[in-house]
């Protein structure tokens, strides 16, 4: 093939992308603004903007400014954030959450559903996920045709090819064939990623780690898992295992992947079985020895010395995990996220104090404020990254009222 034959087309795509990048970074711009930002001629800028408007990626807005050369209002252009939408899914063992966002990342719809008790069979789980997606689309008032891409986080290791890594006990709960199902029936790609890695994307995008290029996020609910961003790039490793916590059974004082919520529940229940009769017992009641993590944290906040000792044990154990992550990846910031994040604030003083014992220059430690939206927000970011990379190859489907 004659390379010169493609030169005009390549130049056109280059100009389109250059103008798009400026439009995405500003509320609205004039032709002059675009000329200054891109170095393109006025004729090229106007032609590119008209092309983007025809494609659906841009729109023209009213302008109060007067073009001094022509004596009429200057044309203003802006990115059309509603030219398409993305989905962010968080598929856990017990729950699926779905966010619908426009191309500016604003959430316009959402849904949540629970899987059958004990997880459910693959067909049941597929049905729950697809129904949750449909509910989120209905909440947003859009059709599947308006979706350009979806990102999905799962509580399992994922390879660089977006597949569930083999050999995991939880694999049957997440290897559901949803990528091909959504591609065939809905016509849009589904990108699969580990939930902790998506949590890292979310924190760097819209969390306490916003803009931080060296960041670690640890999901610390039932099981520990981490996502690592180094020099602005999400780390995966040869088979997606970067940040996995399976080797914690080799770490003295830790011993396994149990997370904060699980430890609080197990140790609180053990205290009740051993005859503890303080605030934990008052909150749990006399009929059971099963303490929830939430009640253990509440009891500690109320001054229960047994609950306080449990939290101190958890904090000291977590400090060893933080030291391990810090030694291996050297982040500036480690964020504790997951379902237990709101309660984990109580652990920060002891964790940071203990961390100082293990690390010469310890990172800052913070707690995520994104709550249950942490992973689906990261999934939205993953989908938006795909759309931004492939924007000129996608065909937008404008929202229909």
Automatic annotation (TrEMBL):
One Pfam family here: ROK
SUPFAM superfamilies named among the record's database cross-references: Actin-like ATPase domain (SSF53067), Winged helix' DNA-binding domain (SSF46785)
InterPro entries assigned: ATPase_NBD, ROK, WH-like_DNA-bd_sf, WH_DNA-bd_sf
Family: Belongs to the ROK (NagC/XylR) family.
Name of this chain's protein: ROK family protein
Organism: Arthrobacter yangruifuii
